[in-house]
Amino acid sequence: MSGYTEDNLVEQPTIALFAELGWQTANCFYETFGMKGTLGRQTPYDVVLEPKLRAALRRLNPDIADEAINIAVEDIV
Q: In percent, how much of the chain has pLDDT > 90?
């Protein structure tokens, strides 16, 4: 089997770079979906981790209304 795969040439070096920069990384090759899934994505097509986005918006803006958080999430997603 050849070492010229997307995983070897792109994904693994990118994961290593993010880890080197201090980011938390995760191997989600066998990710499960849904609210209790690995990352909280509903489908593999979701590119925004909405539960984490909502938590960050709430942490950064503790005094704004839930509706404002909902609008911000909608605009970002």
A: 62
